[in-house]
Specification:
One of its GO terms (molecular function) is DNA binding. By secondary structure, the protein is mainly alpha-helical. Helix content is about 75%, strand content about 0%. The protein is elongated.
């Protein structure tokens, strides 16, 4: 039994090491430009070992994306666990979530660039919805919290909108993440003082979106 447990730990460690190495190289060089051989070298394993864990580079990219999302979400988006969160109005809860997204932009530029790179990779190789399901599920893990905040805001009167909470949730996600990914990608070409202004653009955009949901005829 102990031997079996030790083997499972070794498998888990090796799998995590491969993912970490792949993610680091994907962020540094891009998914398309990174070879499996380079990942194997960085992880300290053979290429054949990687294929035993992940059947294709696409699968490795997907699992790296899932692991990255989980790390970022756990760091910045677990707002429901914060003291006093449940007592906030719907608008304040939504603002807490949006503050987490702004922090991601300020501190996790590599993550946003990876998302942009991953989107390009998916389109180029035509990955199916079925293959992307785990990745999509990970991305949408924030959806229930956003919808709960929107529903609460509509009920307590701090938010007002004519669409369903789910429709608004999707619109917010696409708007905010789309902007953050674009600015992260293009912002890497700018001088540092110009990059500082990008965070303000995100802050203004988020503020306008939330204000738009508080407008009443």
């Amino acid at each position: 039994m102990r031997g079996s447990e030790a083997r499972q730990r070794q498998i888990q460690y090796r799998s995590e090491r491969i993912l970490e190495s792949a993610l680091e190289l994907f962020c540094e060089k891009g998914i398309q430009e990174t070879s499996v051989e380079e990942i194997a070298g960085k992880a300290g394993v053979g290429s054949a070992t990687i294929y035993r864990y992940y059947s294709t580079k696409a699968e490795l990219a997907i699992q790296s994306g899932v692991a990255y999302w989980e790390k970022i979400a756990g760091t910045y988006l677990n707002v429901a666990d914060r003291k006093g969160y449940t007592d906030l109005t719907g608008k304040k809860q939504l603002e807490c979530i949006m503050d987490g997204l702004k922090q991601i932009f300020e501190h996790e530029q590599a993550f946003l660039k990876y998302l942009q790179e991953f989107d390009v990779f998916v389109r180029k190789y035509g990955l199916t919805v079925e293959r992307l399901k785990e990745y999509e599920d990970c991305i949408m893990s924030l959806k229930p919290r956003v919808i709960d905040a929107l529903d609460k805001g509509k009920k307590d009167g701090t938010l007002s909108f004519e669409w369903s909470s789910e429709e608004v949730c999707y619109s917010l996600a696409h708007s905010v993440f789309g902007l953050m990914k674009k600015l992260s990608w293009n912002g890497s070409l700018l001088a540092l003082n110009e990059q500082n202004g990008l965070a303000l653009q995100v802050e203004i955009a988020v503020d306008l979106l939330v204000r738009g949901l508080t407008y009443k005829n």
